[in-house]
Write a structure and sequence with these properties.
By secondary structure, the protein is α+β, with helices and mostly antiparallel strands. The protein has four helices and three strands. It has a single domain, classed as BolA-like (GMP Synthetase, Chain A, domain 3), CATH 3.30.300.90. The chain has a three-stranded mixed beta sheet with strand order 1-2-3. The longest helix is centred in the N-terminal third of the chain and has 12 residues. The protein starts with a helix and ends with a helix. It holds the Pfam family BolA.
Length: about 80
Amino acid sequence: MDNQEIKLLLIKKLNLEQANITGDSNHIKIIAIGNIFKNVSQVKRQQIIYAPLIDMIKEKHIHAVSIMSYTPEEWEKTKK
């Protein structure tokens, strides 16, 4: 599965407003932006993002994942 497919999967499954995926199958970096993260701890946010990817991780299609997650409001503050 390539980065674009991972992006579309996360957007669809998690109803994200935006997702940016970089890297390769050895290590991908995910920046996820969505209202699903409102009032959710960082640990829970990671669990939310891992859920749709777990089979790919188990099957070693993805080796390592770096996750940054934001609500739309947090993302706007981060961009400044």
